[in-house]
Specification:
This protein is about 25% helix and about 45% strand. With about 140 residues, it is α+β, with helices and mostly antiparallel strands.
């Protein structure tokens, strides 16, 4: 499936969901990676005015989950996140963050992703690791 079509379908699937609320937009897709952006606005800030770690984790899990769907037959299987870790390394008050999910291990049952969340200058804001399980559809 061509890249533009994949990105269009992913972005359309976000309508009316947490992804739309957070402003997450899928921007780039490749053989082993997926990229999305999220604006740093009042919706994703802590009361002290900094990017909320939970918003970063939501971005990471969203991206890694969507990326796993690109590797499976969605008619036969479904994806569930089973573990996520996050290290928040830099504060962010405004602007945009860009997340890149890259596959570390693609097994038949488990997918392991590294998700790097960076600011506009390419500085690392958060580093996340996500494990997804591939389950048969019921």
């Amino acid at each position: 499936m061509p890249e533009k079509r994949i990105l269009h379908l992913l972005n359309m699937s976000s309508k009316g969901t947490l992804m739309e609320t957070l402003g997450i937009v899928y921007t780039e897709v490749g053989v082993d990676y997926l990229v999305a952006t999220m604006p740093v606005t009042d919706k994703v800030l802590q009361p002290n005015g900094l990017l909320h770690g939970g918003a970063s984790v939501a971005l990471a899990e969203t991206l890694g989950g969507a990326a796993s769907h690109l590797f499976i037959d969605n008619g036969e299987f479904e994806i569930r996140g089973i573990e996520i870790t996050a290290n928040h390394l830099k504060s962010k008050k405004e602007g945009i963050v860009k997340a890149t999910a890259k596959i570390i291990n693609q097994g038949q049952t488990l997918h392991l992703w590294e998700i790097r969340i960076e600011d506009e200058e390419g500085d690392l804001v958060s580093l996340c690791k996500l494990t997804n399980i591939v389950l048969p559809n019921k």
